[in-house]
Amino acid sequence: MAVPTSSFVVVANRLPVDRGADGAWRTSPGGLVTALEPVIRKQEGVWIGWPGGHLDDYDAFDVEDLSLVPIHVSDRDVAYYYDGMSNDTLWPLYHDLVAKPSFRREWWDSYVKVNRRFATAAAESAEQGGVVWVQDYQLQLVPSMLRELRPDLRIGFFLHIPFPPTELFLQLPWRDEILKGLLGADIVGFQRPGGASNFVRLVRHRLGHKTHRDKIIYDGRPVAARSYPISIDFKQLETLARSEDVQTRAKEIRDELGNPRHVFLGVDRLDYTKGIRQRLRAFGELLADGRVDIEDAVFVQVASPSRERVGQYQEVRDDIERWVGRINGDLGRIGHPPIHYLHSSYPKHEMAALYRAADIMVVTPFADGMNLVAKEYVTSRYDNTGALVLSEFAGAADELKQAFLINPYDINGLKDSMTRSMQTPRQELSRRMRGMRKQVRDHDINDWAEAFLSDLAGEELAS
Ligand code: G6P
Question: Is the full-model pTM beyond 0.70?
């Protein structure tokens, strides 16, 4: 099959679907795919990415009207570029060193090689004068590699995860290469304004380029560094949450849990940045202290499998599962385990039913670019019920100001906020939820994409 071309091309490490060992297509994990899928559908673009799992050939293909170009990544490059450089170097470094990053030269070499492969594929799929939108930390060299191949293109880059404080970024042996890689774009987008200003400062100090506010002059060309907080498809998820199927399933879930007064919920990729152990521990202590009665409350924790070959992910899984076992063993009774722990991922309608079934959503990352689960929860609460406990270190905290904001390092503070969320009168909860829902409704994924893409088109006039 000929390589599909388009005037709009998205390049992301992952394709939006992943083929399981049974041959069935599944939605790929993570917030990036959740956010981008509706955008690419609307733009009728081409999506270039790694298919993750099991593919026999690497021809372009379509799934549900999405035009997909799979990139072949060898087993060795999966180990070096993906597990290694992306998820054992950049991921922990960009998330405030929550875990210790490893710096390995052979991982870097593989990162350069695979980034070049993505850039070459994008150069083949983009039509003359088209727009290419490169996504996330796995592909930070693609903008400059692509510009070399195709100077006619408008190139955008968006970082879905936090951009670190300058002193942490400076640890990276390949710091200048990464900065130059990103500067190949016309716009470098970040989740929070702090990320954009860290980047501009680094470019000025490390590379000595002229900067003016959010603009950098690089090779005689303006590059803008700005924040664009990402969002979700509010309408689509709200409609799903209102559907009869989802309501029936939500009721079923509550029945199966024994209809307690308070259902707490956590939903995360199983990742050490998410603070899963801390929240379960806080819940366990509330039960042990007698501040919460086991007859009254349960905690449902969905932890979807993620990056399971990386040692620090194996360790965090063992750690969480030890805590679940300990809390359930010490505090549970027959038919009443305090924690329902599910190491699995679920389709959208099951997630919507869980959001509907939960009274209190607990989101406790130590560092998080945005956290779309928080936005999904408030979107699903169309009747303005429910409470959100949210880490101030998630990008979402900038927008969801009516949440019960917590510091995940402060377990006592977390316990107090969880208790407060249980005791707050319904009217007050409803006022808070209404405010948060308005924020997500007024700033949905279409606004995010339009803001970025219209700036990208506009920069053309400025250059
Ligand atoms: C985060 C990252 C994405 C990534 C996703 C899932 O949301 O920002 O780039 O795709 O996690 O992680 P995975 O390693 O499974 O692609």
Answer: yes
Residue 274 Cβ < 6 Å to ligand 1: no
Ligand 1 centre to CA of 136 (Å) is 9
Is the CATH code 3.40.50.2300 the one for domain 234-442?
Answer: no
Give the CATH fold of the 6-230+446-462 domain: Rossmann fold (3.40.50)
pLDDT averaged over every residue in the chain = 95
Residues of the chain with CATH 3.40.50.2000: 6-230+446-462, 234-442
Written as six digits, the tokens of 18 are: 């992943």
Cβ–ligand 1 distance for 306 under 6 Å, the answer yes
Each residue's pLDDT tens digit, 194-234: 999 999 999 999 999 999 999 999 999 999 999 999 999 99
- State yes or no: pLDDT of 355 exceeds 90: yes
User: 374-390: per-residue pLDDT in tens?
Assistant: 999 999 999 999 999 99
Q: Is the CB of 30 under 6 A from ligand 1?
A: yes
For residues 370 and 270, what is the distance between their CA atoms, to the nearest angstrom?
16
Residue closest via CA to ligand 1's atom 14 equals 307
Burial 245-261 (b: 16+ CB within 10 A, else e): ebeebbeebbeebeebe
Q: Among 32, 158, 267, which is best to mutate for testing ligand 1, by the most ligand atoms less than 8 A from CB?
A: 32
How many angstroms separate the first and last alpha carbons of the chain? 37
**Per-residue DSSP letter, 394:** B
**What is residue 42's predicted lDDT score, i.e. its pLDDT?**
83
